[in-house]
Design goal:
- This protein has a single domain, classed as Immunoglobulin-like.
- It is mostly beta strands and 79 residues long.
- The protein is globular.
- The protein has a four-stranded antiparallel beta sheet, with no helix packed on it. It has a three-stranded antiparallel beta sheet with strand order 3-4-5.
- It has one helix and seven strands; from the N terminus they run H-E-E-E-E-E-E-E.
- It comes from Natronococcus jeotgali DSM 18795.
- InterPro entries: DUF7127.
- Pfam families: DUF7127.
C-alpha cells in the first residue's frame, strides 16, 4: 500500500505522515495533532473524505486498504 499523493504533497504541512510494514500488511498513519481531535472521515466508493474544523480534503483510497479510521487527530489507513 502506498501513501496517497494528497497526503504526501500539500494537505499535510502541519501533520506527520508515517507508513509502517508488518507481517499482516502495511499501515499509514497521519497525525494532525490535538487541534484535529474532532476530525470526521468518510469513505465513498474509492474516495476518502476528511473534514477538520475549517479544512477539508479528499484522496483516493490506496489499493489494498481495508479500513480507514480517525481517532484523536490521527487518521489510520490499514490493509
Amino acid at each position: 500500500m502506498r501513501v496517497p499523493k494528497q497526503l504526501r504533497d500539500g494537505h499535510t504541512d502541519d501533520a506527520v505522515v508515517r507508513q509502517t510494514e508488518a507481517e499482516d500488511g502495511s499501515v499509514i498513519t497521519v497525525d494532525f495533532g490535538s487541534d484535529a481531535a474532532d476530525m470526521a472521515v468518510d469513505v465513498v466508493d474509492d474516495r476518502v473524505l476528511v473534514v477538520m474544523d475549517d479544512r477539508q480534503f479528499e484522496f483516493e483510497l490506496p489499493a489494498g486498504a481495508s479500513e480507514v479510521t480517525a481517532n484523536n487527530g490521527i487518521l489510520t489507513i490499514s490493509e
